Amino acid sequence: MKFSKYPLLAATFLLFSVSCSTTQEQEMTPKEFAKHVSDVIVKGTNFSFEPAIQEFEQDGVYLFDFPSDERGVFYARSVIEAEKVSENDFGTHLAVSHQAGEIEIMLNGVSIYKNSSTKDGHLNHVDYGLFEFEEKVPVSITDDEHQLLIKYTPRKAGENRVHISFIRSDNALPFPNLELRSPSKKEELEHYGYWWIGPLANNANSQALTDPNKTGAELVAQEVKSISGNTIRWDIPKLHLVKSLPGWLTYQNWHYSGGTFLDAMRQVGDQFSELDYSNYIEDHMAFLADNIDDIEQMREDYGVIEGPFGHYFRASLLDDVGMQTVPYTNKLIAMDPEDRDPNSYGYRLTNRVVDHIMNDASRLPDGTWARFTPDTMSVWADDLFMGSIVLLKMAELTGEQKYLDEVVKQVIQFDRHLIDAPSGLYWHGWFSRNDEYSSSKWGRANGWTMMAKTELLKAMPSDHPKRAEILEIFERHSAGLLAVQSQDGRWHQVLDKTDTYLETSATAMFVRAFAAGINEGWLDRETYEAATIKGWNAITKQIDENGDITGIVRGTPILFSDEEYDNWGTRRSDPRGLGALLYASVEMDKLINN
């Protein structure tokens, strides 16, 4: 029998069939579990868009757009609502980018910014809520309502777009508890954000239009002559109908979670001949390729920041580009070399992303991948996986050693920056400015690094000069994780805090790494087998009465206390954790049948 060589594995696995929780009573093999998770993904995917109205505020940025093809002077009025400003230990900056032309911004009737430009200002999306603007200036904001006015004369008719944001002086993230609304408090008018009027001759009716004491009722009664002599009034912005996906994190979006579960579904198909998801993987990739040009045009036409495939266009963070590209690289690897077209979408995408990771991704002076948030520059444990896997795939595709060596370097340096030596666990982040660790050893952050090390060890040749060092890092981290596994079999949201909840996705990542370690001979079977099976059994119980996978923590930034992590909620069948469940299924099947 398959189990006879390893009685502990046999006894534990057979015991599972009669000891499941009330939410999942049926015996479930790795193949059955892989099918269940994959079916959740397939059934939950809708390769289509929904109609939506473009929002005035997107990720902390406000868009003022004057819908006119005439050239002249335009005005916009908005109200700033601010509270709890005095509780902050940082100041406020006004950040501005606009198309070519002349602009003046007034706060409560006082000019706070003027600029004249012959070229469009840049607006680069850098991180979640973080943008690079053309200009930023300090402003004084107190707890109150403030009258904001923009006077703008575009250089070219019809190019009338102004972006502004109020940001923190310390890290350029959006200023908290500050919002803009229209001059009217009526519910149906507030969300428009601003009123506009124009085009007018320069200085025509300027005093009446800029008076900060005018109420909404007084403004709506104003009538002035346009530059062409027509009577015009204050109006609301033009609304644009845009394409949207049904929810922020959908299975069909361009997101690292999708790249992860697509790669895992490919491995499921390789491991279980009856489970073939190749058509779904192709459909997923085609959805992006068939629609990306149209979405790009929509973004350009309407100044869209948030929208379908948003990470594709930001293309700054490693989790914007890395794992999402892996399915396309997998397809190239599976082709005969003579059939690989360098001009194909997948080939161009892979080259663009790999070039970004190798040459343009933000780094510390020592070359370690780092982010601008929450404190410049910060090492995030998550990024080790996000940037590594596509480089390992590129090494396989091209045979070039430099891609594998880059991952080796990153694994070693992430270990140096994040390791808590006494426990063998990783902190979620490290801040270079003050040489301090973040508050907590978050479970899934440790999981991402274990997944990266697992993939690297699988890809490394046995004679690589750094293989012994990578293996030692993997073994040390594994030992640290083994020591904090709960009696339930799962691991806690904060690994070394038993009063935080038990989390599913990190558990799947550790089970996958342990099982691979045993299968590949990196870890001692006698030491790790029981813990691996206990973790696996616990994972397969996390299915509710609707078939959803439970206990997966939602997307998590670097937080500042164990309590914050514990209060950070879970999301049923969150795609961020489903790929890990599939990887674990594949390795567990190998373990059981080894």
**What helical percentage do the residues reach?**
40-55%
If helices are DSSP runs of H or I spanning 4 or more residues, what is the number of helices?
A: 18
Overall shape: elongated
Percent of sequence in beta strands: 15-25%
Task: Give an account of the 3D structure.
The chain has about 600 residues and is an alpha+beta fold. The protein has two domains: about 400 residues, Alpha/alpha barrel (Glycosyltransferase); about 180 residues, Jelly Rolls, CATH 2.60.120. About 40% of the residues lie in helices and about 20% in strands. The chain contains 18 helices and 24 strands. The strands form eight sheets. Strands 4, 6, 7, 11, 13 and 14 form a six-stranded antiparallel β-sheet that branches. It has a five-stranded antiparallel β-sheet with strand order 2-3-12-5-10, with no helix packed on it. Helix 6 packs parallel to helix 9 and helix 12 runs antiparallel to helix 13. The N terminus is likely disordered.
